[in-house]
Design brief:
Layout (H helix, E strand, L loop, with lengths): L7 E10 L10 E10 L6 H12 L6 H10 L5 E5 L3 H10 L9 E7 L6 H17 L2 H12 L5 E8 L8 H16 L9 E12 L13 E3 L4 H7 L2 E6 L18 E12 H25 L1
Parallel strand pairs: 5-6
Antiparallel strand pairs: 1-2, 2-3, 3-4, 4-5, 6-7, 6-9, 8-9
Length: 296
Amino acid sequence: MEPARKRGALAGSSEPAPIGPDDLVNEMSIDVEFEGRSPEIRDYHCIKQLLQQLFLKAPVNLSDMTSVLIHQPNIGSVIKQVTDEDDEEEDDDDDNDDADQVFGITSVINITEKASECVENLHKLMLDLSNQHSDSDTTLFVNRLLSDDDNQVGLLINERYVNIPPAISVPLFQALCKEIFKLKCKKQSYNFDYFIMICKLYKVKNDKKGNKSFENSEIIWSNGEEEFFDKAADYKFEFCVQNDKGSALAGSWVESDPEMIPFRRVLIFTMEKFCSITNQLESWLANNDTADQHEG
């Protein structure tokens, strides 16, 4: 896969897409090509919806956060469907907004320099979540990390809709690395020491006796590539968001299916690890796909 180019094709997908109540029986394969583009003002509502599915009821001003992501200087990408000129002309004639649909966003926000309401919210949220859900060592580290303004900490945003394969993250992360290195030479606020990533995952509840323990439960990652960051994280903690009414995995479910309980896992790792994992991610994902095919 080529390195990501803004306005350039990112990836092709032939993912089975749910088409209605009967999608457990009939599925349709759709060929879609995506591209990464710089966020624009017209993407505002789509980006905010993506952030909503990640943060749910967390006390963060997502309107402000969306504006910050859009107005940052030359950093971050949104995922859009590639359209040819004929399709764009038809869209204009039919007043169709499909060409502007945002399917994902990959970016970063500095949560050390509290220059906006959403950043203050994020800073407090990370402290509160750590105090409530992490072990003593992790809590101590997070408090030290966020209380020292000499540590530049970025919240890594890696959010997209389901059924878009993990491979699309490779050029997006590669582009983000390049953008950060360009900006950090000019602006201290992008010279990150650590990244914090909030990951969406689901735990399979197989115990029908009401046991609430999820020890050794199967984990399903909403974004499969985040499992590699999880393995390399310096610190991590997680919490259940079932009561926040998080959206379930796409598709219809029958009573015999095991219950999928939504969680958020917070990962903390250095900027160096982010770049290292990004450089190896493409081959790791390819190896995983090959292993899955052999198992199948």
